[in-house]
Design goal:
alpha/beta, 42% helix, globular
Length: 144
Amino acid sequence: MLAVAVAEARTGLATGGIPIGAALFGPDGSLWGRGHNRRVQDGDPSVHGETAAFRDAGRRASYRGTTMVTTLSPCWYCSGLVRQFGITSVVIGEARTFFGGHEWLAENGVSITVLDDPECVGLMTDFIAARPDLWFEDIGEVAD
């Protein structure tokens, strides 16, 4: 499952954006949607990896039993999406470079798995070193 999100993150990086990818899997493990952070490419601050995957999954009667797989700990915006639509579990590639709302999700009944995947850590570490301006813009902070 993580391989789909990592492929999306690599696509985002290759197209000039931030290397964060995500995928939403149905209760039976089938891929419903995939996407990557496109804030830079689309000029739209709301297109995070998780929101892109969610939109790609399309309208569903319910998202219960689904799993959101993301290369990076979800920010508060994406954590809110998970809670709002009742996504049951979140698999996180890494939470070293950014620690988002996943503890809050766990406190509210969402199953959380943090993989601490070296490839995900490397993607973000390299990106942050190369483009701190875009990184700080993405997380809503000002670079020093």
